[in-house]
Structure formats: structure tokens, C-alpha cells
Amino acid sequence: MRLALVLLALLALLAPLVSAFASRARRRDFRALSESQMGALATLDPPEWDAVDSGHLAHLLVPRVSGTENNTQVQEYLSSVFAKLGWHEDKDRFTQETPLGDVQFTNLIFTFDADAPRKLVLSAHFDSKWFEQGGFIGATDSSAPCATLLDVAEALTPLLRARKARVDAGTPLLQDGHDEEDAAATTLQIIFFDGEEAFHEWTDTDSVYGSRHLADKWDAEYLPPSHEFVRRRLSPRPTVLDTVDVLVLLDLLGAPSPSISSYYRDTDWMFVQLSAVDDRLRAAGLVDKGAKEHWFSKYINQFSGIDDDHRPFLHKGVPILHLITSPFPAVWHRMSDNKDALDLGVLRRWNRIMRVWTAAYLGLSADDGGAAATAAPRNASPKTTDEL
Ligand SMILES: *[C@@H]1O[C@H](CO)[C@@H](O)[C@H](O)[C@H]1NC(C)=O
Ligand SMILES: [Zn+2]
């Protein structure tokens, strides 16, 4: 990661590119959760959560440099979590030259419903930075963000499943006048990028190995004729990148008092919703760390960006929400970025924010399976495929 000032001129060059795709980040009906739904989701904390190095983090807080045995073990752990949840897994494995010679990298891509035409993508990098002396753990960089993604997947899988069952059975709910069959067309995808870290000095080529590879791959992969975007004759010919509503990238999180900015105008409304979720959690007494602290800036920071795994996707026009603390944590790229840098209350707050925001984005009903869900009115009108 490197703090890079993006010049106004560069932004001006990119602006037309971004606006050409702006329709993809069009505003959704962001269905705010009721107070009780929010409370139910927020307090779903796993029972083993009494220390920062128990649960998922116990498996992630190890040195895991790309191409090493430990990196493979972390991949296996991530895969095992999603296998249990029944998600679809794709591996993007490739070998690339680095300053240390050829290294094998593996991005892991997990999708709840691989047939859905659109995706909300949450992502983080799971590799840790190489240091000659070894031993660097990267707790904030990015073990904690990876653990949050696992938490979101576990918390929301039952809701995603319940909705899919209703849609498959032809009995989707009508919520606030919106049919959840439409909402179900956007699924949740979680990407763990490998090779984010530079081996030597951070440059355009010695950094973000995994995300560069995946963005190139998806940019060259055309959608099948049956896809709704192809049927709608979108131009230019749509690729897998077009199925990404937004790429949300989490990085350098888990230490106390983060300061998070919005960097992109087209996704600022999502950032505002994220900040609103945090405000609601705080007002409801569901935040036990820094409850008086604002983590989310009120202003768009359009003139500086932080180089990270989103770069290759941004340059190909994918809408980006970059959740990173700036300034970076004091432990950044130091041996002290270990479990002592993390705070349980902070991690819990991030998990709650991301669970509630993601559920609202996807239009999930948080009391799914409960009495409230079955009591809601059903949509009886037949759908044609054109309406998908
Ligand atoms: C691999 O992880 C273990 C902890 O599980 C650690 O003791 C070991 O040093 C790591 N190996 C390398 C090469 O960093
Ligand atoms: Zn780093």
C-alpha cells in the first residue's frame, strides 16, 4: 500500500471512462433494516469471540507470504469456511515473475449464487508482506478485514438461503412494494486477493499481483448469450466485469479509531449509507468501542486516492468503495502489526457495520425464517424473464 496523490489531470482523464460505466453503480433501493432486524444481525456474535486471536483470526494471524506453504494453508482454511456454507468457489491461480523470482499466486472467489446476473463484491487481500527476516503477520494488513468478510458470509448465508428458497419456490416476498425476486438478481461475492504486497519497493508492477490478474481475466471474459446484459444488447459487449455492481475493498482495519474517507463520487451514496449504519448502531447502543467516535468522514476526498487492490478494477471502470484508514495504522509494515494491534470491540463494530450494510444493500430480510417473514404479504403476479 502506498499513499499516492492522484493528480487532477489524471482524474480528468479517467472521468469519462468512469462515467461511461456509471450506470452500473446506479442507486439501488437501499432497504434500511428495522430496529429489531438490525439488532438481531448485530448481536449474532460467534460464541468463541472472547479474544482477538480465537475464531477465524487464529487461522489468519500467521506469516502467509504469497507462494509459501503458510499461504496455501490459509487458502485451505478460507475454502473450508465457504465449503461449510455451501458457496461456489473459483480459484484464479497463476505464476508471475516478481523481484524474488517466479511466484505462484491464487485469488479465491466465493459466490453465494453463481447463477445470479449481478454481484455485490466484498474483498480484501489475504497475503502478508515479505520481509527478509520473516515473521511479519499483518494483523491489520489484512487478517482482520479477511475475518470480517468471513463473518459477513456466515451471518448472511441463512438469510440468502431463505430468500433463494422462496424465489425458487415462486413465493418471493413483497417488501415495501419491492419484489425480492428482483433483489435476488444481485448476489454476494467475496474475493480474497493474493499478492497485494510488493516484494521490494511498491511500483505498478511490484504490487497487487492478484487483483491485476483477475481484472485482466474478467475483462477478457465475455458473458454468455443467455445473460440479461447480453440480451439487453449492452454496448460494448459486456464482460464479467460488468456483473460487478461495486467492488468494496477493506484494508488496514482492526486497530482503534480508524478514519475512513469516501474517494469516489459514483459510490458516495453507498459510503453515506455505511456511515448511517454506524450511526444507527451507535444510537442503539450496539457499539462498545469508541461509541462517541465518528469513523466515517463527512466529505468526499476526490483528489487523493490510496493505491491498492482496487486499482486494476478502477481503471477498467468498475465502481469502487475503498474502506481503508488514512493515515495508516501506526503499526503499518512493522513487526508490531500483530494481534496486539487489534481491538476486539473495533473488530466487532466493523463486523456489525458490514453485516447490516450488506444485508440492506442486498435487500435481505433479517428476520428471515421467523414469524415476521412468513406474515409478510406475498407477491402473486407472474414474472416474465424480461423483467428479471
Ligand atoms: C508459518 O506459520 C507458523 C504458525 O502457524 C509459523 O510458526 C511459521 O514461522 C510460519 N512460517 C513462515 C515461513 O513464516
Ligand atoms: Zn501491506
Would you give an account of this structure?
Helix content is 35%, strand content 18%. The chain is α/β, with parallel strands linked by helices and 388 residues long. It has one domain: 3-Layer(aba) Sandwich (Aminopeptidase). A hairpin with a 2-residue loop joins β5 and β6. The protein starts with a strand and ends in a 13-residue tail after the last helix. The chain binds 2-acetamido-2-deoxy-beta-D-glucopyranose and zinc ion (ZN). The site of zinc ion (ZN) has 5 residues, from loops.
Strand content: 15-25%
Radius of gyration, in Å, reads: 20 Å
| Number of helical segments with 4 or more residues | 12
Binned, the helix content reads 25-40%
Tell me the span between the first and last alpha carbons: 40 Å
The CATH topology is Aminopeptidase
What's the structural domain tally? 1
Largest sheet: 6 strands, mixed
Mean pLDDT: 87
What is the class in the CATH system?
A: Alpha Beta
| CATH homolog superfamily | Zn peptidases
Summarize the structure.
With 388 residues, the chain is α/β, with parallel strands linked by helices.
Question: How are the SSEs ordered, and which strands pair?
Answer:
Elements: E1 2-4, H1 8-20, H2 35-42, H3 56-60, H4 69-85, E2 88-98, E3 101-111, E4 118-125, H5 139-168, E5 174-175, E6 178-179, H6 180-183, E7 186-193, H7 209-219, H8 228-231, E8 244-251, E9 260-262, H9 268-283, E10 296-300, E11 305-307, H10 311-315, E12 320-324, H11 344-362, H12 371-375
Parallel strand pairs: 4-7, 4-8, 8-12, 9-10
Antiparallel strand pairs: 1-11, 2-3, 3-7, 5-6
Helix pairs in contact: 4-5, 5-11, 9-11
